[in-house]
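Record minuted for completeness.

…
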Amino acid sequence: MTPVPVFLYHAVTDDPPDWIAPYAVTPRVFTEQLDRIADAGLTVVPLRRLVTALRGGTRLPPRSAVLTFDDGFADFYWTVTPLLTDRGLPATVYVTTGAVHTPGTGPNGSLLPPADMLNWRQIGTLDTFGFEIGDHTVTHPQLDTLSARQVWHEVFDSKRRLEDALSHPVYSFAYPHGYSSASVRRAVREAGYTSAAAVGNAISSATDDPMRIARLMVRSDTTAEAFTRWTRCAGTPVAPLHESLRTRGWRMYRRARAVAGRPVGGPPGPSTLE
C-alpha cells in the first residue's frame, strides 16, 4: 500500500464564524483543491476502504486519498455535497451530536461555539446519499483530560444517538482536537468503533494505526503549493509517528488545567499525533 493522504476539513464557506475561520476554506479554494487531487491522479476512496486495507484486507488503488470533515457544519450539506456528488467522490462526516438540532429547534449542547450546524434531517439525507456519518463525541471535549466515566459518555452515548437516527451501526470515530491517549483509544475500541481518526499532520501508510489514523488538516492558510505537495505524498511526515515528549508534556499540562477547573479551551486546532 502506497502512502495515503487523508484530508481533514472543517467548514467550507465564504463567511465562517470567527472562531472557525482559521480552519475554514472557501468554496472556490475547495474546488481548486479537488482539481489538484484529480490532477495528481489520486483516486478518492471511502474511509472504510482505507481501514480495511490497514487491517490487512483488500488493497487500495495504487494512488489513493480520503476526504474527511469534522464537527458537522451545515455547509457540508449545502456547499460540499453538490461538489462531491458532481465528481462522484465519497467522504466521511464526523458529527458532534450535541451540536446537532432538530429542524426548528436549537442545538442540544456542545463545547463548540455557535455556528450553522447540520440538523438531523440533513444528516439522514447525507447518509442516504452514501456519505459516511462518523462520530465526533457529544460535546467535543479534549478526551484525554476526562475521567473514564466521562470518556465513555462521550464515545458511547454519541454513537447510540447517531445509530438511533440512522437505523444502522456507526463504526468510525474522530478524536476532538486530535487528542487521544492509550486509555481513550481503548474506550473507543470497546464502544464498538473499528477506526478512529487523529490529526498528526502526516500522511497515512500501510503501517498506520486504524485507531489513530493520521490526517492532514487543511486550513485557511494552506497554500496551493503545500496542498499540491500533499497530493504527491511529499512535504510532511508519513505515519505512524511515535509520541513525543512534547506531546506527553502538553497532555499533562492540559490535564492539570482541567483538574484545576481552568481547562485549555479553543476550537479544533493542529496537534501532534497522540
Notes: The chain has one domain: 6-259. The CA atoms of residues 167 and 205 lie 32 Å apart.
